[in-house]
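Much of what follows relies on a compact textual record of a protein's fold. Each token is a code from a learned vocabulary of local backbone shapes. The record below shows the convention in full.
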Amino acid sequence: MEYRQLGGSGLKVPALSFGTGTFGGSGELFRAWGSTDVAEATRLVDICLEAGLNLFDSADVYSGGLAEEILGQAIKGRRDAVLISTKATFQTGEGPNDVGSSRYHLTRAVDAALRRLGTDYIDLFQLHAFDALTPIEEALQTLDDFVRAGKIRYIGCSNFSGWHLMKSLAISEKYGLARHVAHQAYYSLIGRDYEWELMPLGLDQKVSAVVWSPLGWGRLTGKLRRGAPPPEKSRLSGKVSNDAGPKVDDEYLFKVVDAIDAVAAETGKTVPQIALNWLLQRPTVASVIVGARNEEQLRQNLGAVGWNLTREQVTKLDAASELPSAYPYWHQVQFADRNPPPIPIATS
């Protein structure tokens, strides 16, 4: 397993990390993701550690905290061998303060996560979303207090806009507070919006991407083909509301899948392995979160590392997945000699 520096910190993380959204299966949404119990989770952790994957990501809203509990049981007795990342901000109770990034809610959220995980520290704690109702200073001061108390080692954010993240970094610098070193963001071959604003920001400010949903809500598993309905057990089957991600035009999707298939024929790798490997070669990407319902899926995902696509293959995938840029990015390409993007901007 390759290990990469996490942003501007001294921490190294594996190129692949394991997402625990499939642990527990509590509620309609998370039951559709998976229902891994403690025994199976322990086996999956075993396989990960054997492969050198030691970063496990969770959140307090995954199965209402059950995912964190199961992860805590699965790593029991080997806490020093793993890195734990978790998140909070979303609604966790019925009270008006059981949501957001206020000192009140974050304090309760961090202490509850520590109890569920059975540990006294969290390696990477991330704000799960931007809370515009809480002053950024309040959220960052709260996280800084946890860092100083030893309950959190590094902080990050998730699903922030560019200005959300940049303003947060500026406030951390102004007051000498703990600084975001990671941004857990959606990024895939069929979702390249991250490249427009967040990637240049990450390069400039040394904030790494920890990528979630790298297969585009299951669209890049190799199971979707022209004219065929989505698999019965897919997140795209429509049986669970609000779990299909952003709409993707069918023709665009199949154009990308066709390109992946062509590269698969050249490499002997699977469609998911190629989609994951493409991400691992993008600027700012420190770790790509993979999930698995079972050992077979996990081992296939682990096969995405230890090799690299060729420059020509990357170019082929880039061309197939390229979309016209939004303003001002399409305009900035006209001044690329003085303001070069980290990856060429689409001009079509």
In short: The first helix runs from residue 28 to 33.
